[in-house]
Amino acid sequence: MAREKNWRKILLGLGLDNKDEHKRFTKGFNFYLIGGSEDTHKTMQEKSIKFNECLKKRRKTLDEINNKEFYEIADKIGLQIPDEKNKKLKS
Asked: Is 51 contained in some domain?
């Protein structure tokens, strides 16, 4: 009998501007953040927390929102999403 996998959506943050060779990793509810300079990592933490706060206000989980809701929240908190991908997924 095959085992079912319980997949859950998460926010994944990758910071690629680390110059001090310090390894940064933060795991929180709905998110994993890896790398980045101290400032970049801190910004990713703040945005992840704000994203979760917006979800909580909507009384939804990351798994329960659709693409439109995702982009509304992302826009509200100032999350940068590449334009081309954003245009395709918003519609």
From this structure: yes
In a domain, 2, yes or no: no
Specify if 58 maps to a domain: yes
Local confidence band at 16 (pLDDT 50, 70, 90 cut-offs): very high
Name the strands in the sheet holding 11-15, side by side, starting at the edge strand that comes first in the sequence: 11-15, 31-35, 25-28
If DSSP codes are grouped into helix, strand and coil, which group holds residue 24? Answer: coil
Give the up-direction half-sphere exposure of residue 10: CA atoms within 13 A in the CB hemisphere.
Answer: 14
C-alpha 41/C-alpha 32 separation (Å) is 11
Q: Residues 42-69: pLDDT tens digits?
A: 999 999 999 999 999 999 999 999 999 9
In a domain, 6, yes or no: no
